[in-house]
Amino acid sequence: xxxxxxxxxxxxxxxxxxxxxxxxxxxxxxxxxxxxxxxxxxxxxxxxxxxxxxxxxxxxxxxxxxxxxxxxxxxxxxxxxxxxxxxxxxxxxxxxxxxxxxxxxxxxxxxxxxxxxxxxxxxxxxxxxxxxxxxxxxxxxxxxxxxxxxxxxxxxxxxxxxxxxxxxxxxxxxxxxxxxxxxxxxxxxxxxxxx
Length: 195
What we know:
Elements: H1 9-14, E1 18-26, E2 32-43, E3 54-66, E4 72-79, H2 84-92, E5 96-106, E6 115-119, E7 122-128, H3 134-141, H4 146-149, H5 154-166, E8 173-174, H6 177-183
Parallel strand pairs: 4-5, 5-7, 6-8
Antiparallel strand pairs: 1-2, 2-3, 3-4, 6-7
C-alpha cells in the first residue's frame, strides 16, 4: 500500500498545507496516492500558540501522485480569484511538472472563457466556476458518465478522473498570467446562503 511519505504530498502535509481531507490515502491504482480536500495558500498571522484557519485556500482539491515521483501528476481545485494561482505555485510549485495535468478554476473569470496559462514551468488549464463543483466540471470536461462512477469508492473515482486527465490535451486560448490578471473581474462575495 502506498504511503504519503513515498510521495511529494509528504512535505505539503508536514507543512500543514493539506486541510479538511475527504480522502487522503492510497487509491485503487498500485503505487498511487490521492488527496481530496483543501490546500492552504496563505495563512493569517497567528498569535501565541493559537492556530488560525488559512486566509486563502484552494477548495475542492483533487490530486494524485505516484510513489517515488517528486512531482504531482494531476491537480485540480477552485479559488475565488485567478490571482491565487500565484499563491498555489508558491506553495507547491517545486512539485509541479511540465508534463503534469493541472486544472485551476477561478470564480472571477468570464463564464464563457477558458484559457491555458503557462506559469511556474508548467501549464494550467484555467476556467471559471460559478454554480457547479470542480468534480462535476471535470466529469463534463473529460466526458465521464456519472453513472459509471456511482458504485466506486472515493479513491477509485479519483483514479478515474486522474486517468482521463492524463490523456487530456485540448488546446485552449493561451494567455500569460499577467494578461489573465487584466481581464479577471472582482472577487465575488458569496452571500450567506442556507446550507
